[in-house]
Amino acid sequence: MIPRYVGNAKREWRVGETTDDTERTVAVARAILKHGTVEHTAVGRELLECVKCIHPGLRSLWEFHQAGDPARVTDRHDGCGAAIRMAPVGILYRSDRLNDIVAGAREASISTHGGPLALGGAAAVAAAISAAIDERSPSEIVAIAEHAAAQAEHERSGTRKLADALGAVHADLARSTDLGPDDLAAHHFPADPLTIVPLAIALGTVCHSADAAILLAANIGGDSDSVASIAGAILGARHPQTVNDEWYAIVEKINAHNLAQFALDLSQLR
Predict the structure, then answer these.
(1) What sign does the dihedral 23-188-192-105 (CA atoms) show?
(2) Helix (H/G/I), strand (E/B), else coil: 256
(3) Is 117 exposed, middle or buried (0-12, 13-18, 19+ CB in 10 A)?
(4) What would the DSSP string read from start to end of 197-247?
(5) What is the C-alpha separation between 75 and 8, in angstroms, rounded?
């Protein structure tokens, strides 16, 4: 057990154990592999099988599991919990299929997250991962993510706050000559959707190593695991040789997810 979680009433987390973010990413992957597309009821059915982090303090998941309805759709909750699980959507659709990416991100989100920032963030992450797989340049990845965010957010609220934040944060980080956790925490502390997703996508495009970006993000503070997850996913697609094999081996040993097989199966549908 991780020492600080020994005796924790909610969960005693193990060293190397993945959280609800990975559990629900796998759920989205299972739904896509079973149906060949992204459909919210199929995703909802798989999400209901997830067991981690279901408590009243995490309202988006709590309300969904309390309802117990795989077809449930919410227009509430603007957190980044949906954005975290978008890698399977990004693998499924090529980056030139922007409408499919935005629609797929929405279908994979609305069981638990339906706010405009949540949908914009989910679409942006799926698009960024897809563009990275297609070997687009960093500037193209950001532009495609911006377009996806703007489309998703506009469809929901008529605004584009998240899309604008994506461009601004990326431009700021691209100008920096020394990206350190203290400086990033001072200027782009990841505390809400307008900072978490833009910072993650910016790191995923200005950095050159998944390993280094994950360590950097994890030491910023705030919602650092979300930033590390998204940045690591983008860089894992851009520079797969920089994924830390030792970390992955430990995660597989503890959790037995077989994530590599999920990725291979999804890529065959791309």
Answers:
(1) negative
(2) coil
(3) buried
(4) HHHHHHHHHH-S-HHHHHHHHHTT-SSHHHHHHHHHHHHHHH-GGGS-HHH
(5) 32
Q: Could you read off the pLDDT of 106-117 as tens digits, one per residue?
A: 999 999 999 999
When the pLDDT of each residue in the chain is averaged and rounded to a whole number, the result is: 96
Where do runs of H (alpha helix) occur along the chain? 20-35, 40-47, 59-67, 87-92, 98-109, 116-133, 138-157, 161-175, 181-188, 193-206, 210-218, 224-238, 245-255, 259-267
Token couple for 5: 């979680």
Query: Domains in the chain, start-ordered, CATH in brackets?
Result: 3-267 (1.10.4080.10)
The token duo for 186 is 């001072």
pLDDT band at 10 (very low <50, low <70, confident <90, very high): confident
Exposure letters 203-217 (e unless 16+ CB within 10 A, then b): bbbbbebbbbbbebb
Short-list 213, 190, 216, CA closest to 83: 190
Q: How far apart are CA 200 and CA 172, in angstroms?
A: 13
User: Can you give the pTM of this predicted structure?
Assistant: 0.97
> Using CA atoms, how far apart are residues 163 and 182, in angstroms rounded to an integer?
25
